[in-house]
Design brief:
The structure holds 2 protein chains of 2 kinds.
Chain A: H1 2-22, E1 24-29, E2 35-40, E3 45-47, H2 53-59, E4 68-72, H3 75-78, H4 80-89, E5 98-99, H5 109-114, E6 119-123, H6 127-132, H7 135-141, E7 146-149, H8 155-170, H9 173-197, E8 203-207, E9 218-220, H10 225-231, E10 235-236, E11 246-248, H11 251-257, E12 261-266, H12 287-297, H13 307-311, E13 314-318, H14 327-338, H15 348-358, E14 369-371
Parallel strand pairs in A: 3-4, 3-6, 4-5, 6-7, 8-10, 8-12, 12-13
Antiparallel strand pairs in A: 1-2, 9-11, 13-14
Helix pairs in contact in A: 8-9, 9-14, 14-15
Chain B: H1 4-8, H2 10-44, H3 52-60, H4 67-102, H5 114-128, H6 140-160, H7 167-191, H8 194-205, H9 213-232, H10 234-240, H11 244-249, H12 254-276, H13 282-294, H14 298-322, H15 331-349
Helix pairs in contact in B: 2-4, 2-14, 3-4, 4-9, 4-12, 4-13, 4-14, 5-6, 5-7, 5-8, 5-12, 6-7, 6-12, 9-12, 13-14, 13-15, 14-15
Classes of the chains: A alpha/beta, B mainly alpha.
């Protein structure tokens, strides 16, 4: 009885002592617009989504997991290529406690509390579910603040503020600013040229996860890859048709719109659709096989007689660019495909390499995109 | 069906009967014409704005028009438009005969868990790449769905052979199946990736865009095979609606008939659901509309159900394309939203009690 009572008490006392020893209270505004006052730097952090390691990894490349006491188990499922490479570099990653369930908001509040974190980083799409279950209130009673970040719902708008926020919370502000400067400069290399030259915008069809199912065709509306296309100086043929980020196009619409470029997003989805028609681009991808599959996708009914197929302007790019802070690399590569004459000097591969060298804990491996054009 | 006053006077009864048959034949012809009209509209409309002349030219002389027009009409619009008709007819006939043999107005391929089983099989394939039997990759999902649907049907069949199982028990077994498979589906979605969940959700909404020529021929083949077999039992099935005891006194073996029909309609429903996903409402409402228009006589009720189902789905197919041009709203959503008001109108304005 005595033991049961005293353990949490001792835990609380220890954390109180530790916190008051090194941390000072700061007030930040998170991506959801909430004002949060908490002690920084945070020493014990729970990642409400494992892929937040993309952000944390850039701030603390030598030990991105040093302050992570628990995380949701989605990284290994959603991005197995990179998970493996992080695991090779940081074998201790396997022993971090994980939260079961991959859905937003399926989160064991009791387990979270028992890990005694200073802070829980949540993705903004989990906000509704978190508040529905009143986890925020329960955690607030335990003095565990939730901070919302985002690099998926609106990567172009929210990635940079999210980086800045995490920098503040983890006392890595200098590293955060360095990345932000880099990301903004890299994006500007495309947007400034497009703005100045104001070139004719080619019609582009983004084939979201093309070949993943025999359903044709998933695409992006005005947000996400749709926005990347616009930034890169193209016109998304699904604009005005798909209202939200995600949706399906009538295959006939693709033939009618006659896109000049087709961009298929792909990844190695062997775990989900073994031997499927998806194009397996990504780090260390088998280029020859990816090219073969991309070629095969051009024979689908919806691709009949469109300009992109006639001219070979059919490209494949890593699907995870849609939810990673490296979106600017995708924008660069799209721009180079759409306007090769304007972006002759732009080398997106070099950008991605520099990103890895300067910021990321893992080494660069090529294979993030292919095109049928130079054949 | 007929009032007693008419039976009392043989001549009047015969006149009434002839008039009724004539009227019902007219309704069937009317439904067929409406279906043909809907098919034409379905073929004529789409985001590629072809003129009527171009559509006709592409249909009549496919080799004389541009490749685009030919592909759009023959490979995109045609399989979808025809699949709508065949699937609508299959689901509606399946629902009609389930309602007949189970004497239950709520029976449909859904109530018996056949669609839920199919969804579960499809989700296994979509989320984890599980193939129940090894097969070509593009047929994993429909074959999974078909096998699970038939498995469900045979489970219900096997259980209904046990002693003391009544019609009500069969319906309850079906409802149990629905709940089991729904839970399993939720479990799959809980563990699956984001892309996979999107694919599963989309599949369960039902979509005719999955239609291809081979799938159409298979679905048509099954329908063409099952319809005569059901028509052969037409009088016996009509008698079943009077109750097992009366049917038996007329020389019908209700148990044997029930089992045979159950297998046949499961096959119909399983094929339809496997190819286009779950389209809920047709199997329930198609037969009810047919019954209100044509009565219980299987000579009219069976083709009437097929026509009503085909018509609802064909009109749904047109609407799914034109509500937001360029995209296709999943057909399952459309049929319910458009069909339910029409159905309520019929139910509330119907003078006689259908059940």
């Amino acid at each position: 009885m005595l033991l049961r009572l005293s353990l949490p008490f001792v835990g609380a006392l220890t954390s109180l002592v530790c916190a008051s020893a090194i941390a000072a209270p700061i007030t930040v505004t998170d991506i959801a617009g909430r004002q949060i006052t908490l002690d920084a730097p945070a020493e014990r952090v729970i990642l409400g989504e494992g892929r937040q390691i993309y952000l944390l990894g850039m701030l603390e490349p030598d030990a991105p997991l040093a302050h992570v006491v628990g995380w949701r188990e989605d990284f290994s499922q959603a991005d197995p290529d990179n998970y493996q490479r992080y695991l090779e570099r940081f074998p201790e990653m396997a022993s971090i406690p994980t939260f079961g369930g991959f859905k937003d908001g399926t989160f064991d509040v009791e387990q979270a509390a028992s890990l005694n974190p200073d802070l829980i980083l949540m993705n903004i799409e989990a906000k509704a579910a978190t508040e529905d279950a009143a986890y925020d209130d329960k955690l607030a009673e335990l003095d565990i603040p939730i901070v919302y970040v985002d690099f998926r719902e609106d990567p172009i708008e929210n990635t940079i503020p999210s980086m800045r926020l995490i920098g503040q919370l983890m006392n890595d502000e200098a590293a955060a600013e360095e990345f932000i400067t880099f990301a903004e400069a890299q994006l500007a290399r495309v947007t400034e040229v497009i703005e100045q030259a104001n070139p004719e915008r080619p019609r582009v069809f983004v084939d979201r996860a093309g070949g993943y199912s025999d359903e044709c065709c998933m695409s992006f509306g005005p947000a996400n890859f749709g926005e990347y296309v616009t930034l890169a100086g193209g016109t998304n043929i699904a604009d005005g048709i798909i209202p939200a980020s995600f949706g399906n196009l009538n295959p006939e619409q693709i033939i009618a719109a006659n896109p000049q470029h087709v961009v298929v997003t792909g990844g190695s989805w062997d775990a989900y659709v073994p031997g499927g028609d998806w194009v397996g681009v990504g780090p260390g991808a088998d280029q020859a096989q990816a090219r073969e599959k991309l070629q095969a996708l051009t024979t689908r009914t919806a691709m009949t007689g469109i300009d992109a197929v006639e001219t070979g302007n059919v490209h494949a790019i890593w699907h995870q660019f849609y939810n990673s802070p490296y979106y600017f690399v995708a924008v660069q590569q799209l721009a180079k495909w759409f306007h090769p004459e304007l972006f002759e000097d732009l080398d997106p591969e070099a950008t991605l390499e520099e990103l890895h060298d300067r910021f990321l804990p893992i080494d660069y491996q090529p294979g993030y995109w292919i095109t049928l054009h130079d054949e | 069906m007929m009032s007693n006053a008419n039976v009392a006077h043989p001549t009047a009864g015969r006149t009434f009967y002839r008039a009724q048959v004539w009227r019902r034949q007219l309704i069937l012809v009317g439904l067929t014409l409406a279906l043909l009209l809907s098919l034409c509209v379905d073929l004529a409309l789409g985001p590629a704005r072809f003129s009527l002349a171009e559509v006709v030219a592409a249909l009549v002389t496919p080799n004389a028009v541009s490749q685009q027009a030919r592909v759009i009409l023959w490979d995109i619009r045609m399989p979808v438009a025809l699949m709508a008709i065949v699937v609508g007819a299959s689901l509606s006939v399946a629902g009609a005969q389930m309602q007949t043999i189970l004497s239950n107005p709520l029976a449909s391929p859904f109530t018996l868990g056949i669609s839920a089983g199919a969804s579960f099989g499809a989700a296994l394939g979509l989320a984890f790449g599980v193939a129940i039997i090894p097969t070509a990759i593009e047929y994993v999902v429909p074959i999974n769905a078909f096998l699970m649907a038939m498995f469900t049907a045979f489970l219900i069949h096997a259980l209904s052979l046990k002693r003391g199982v009544t019609v009500e028990t069969i319906v309850l077994l079906g409802i149990a199946m629905v709940f089991i498979f729904n839970s399993l589906m939720a479990l799959i979605q809980f563990f699956a990736s984001q892309e996979a969940v999107a694919a599963v959700v989309f599949w369960t909404m039902g979509s005719l865009t999955k239609a291809t020529w081979p799938k159409f021929w298979i679905a048509l083949g099954v329908l063409a095979l099952v319809m005569p077999l059901l028509a052969r039992h037409g009088w016996a099935l009509t008698a079943m609606r009077l109750g097992d005891a009366k049917a038996e006194s007329m020389g019908v073996n209700p148990r044997a008939l029930r089992l045979e029909v159950l297998v046949l309609v499961s096959l119909l429903a399983a094929i339809a659901v496997a190819f286009v996903g779950t389209i809920g409402f047709i199997g329930l409402v198609g037969p009810h509309i047919a019954r209100m228009l044509l009565g219980e006589d299987q000579r009219f009720f069976l083709p009437g159900s097929a026509l009503c189902g085909a018509l609802i789905l064909s009109v749904g197919s047109v609407l799914s394309k034109i509500i937001i041009p360029g995209t296709i709203i999943p057909i399952g959503i459309i049929t319910s939203l458009v069909g339910i008001p029409f159905f309520l109108f019929l139910v509330l304005n119907h003078k006689k009690a259908a059940w």
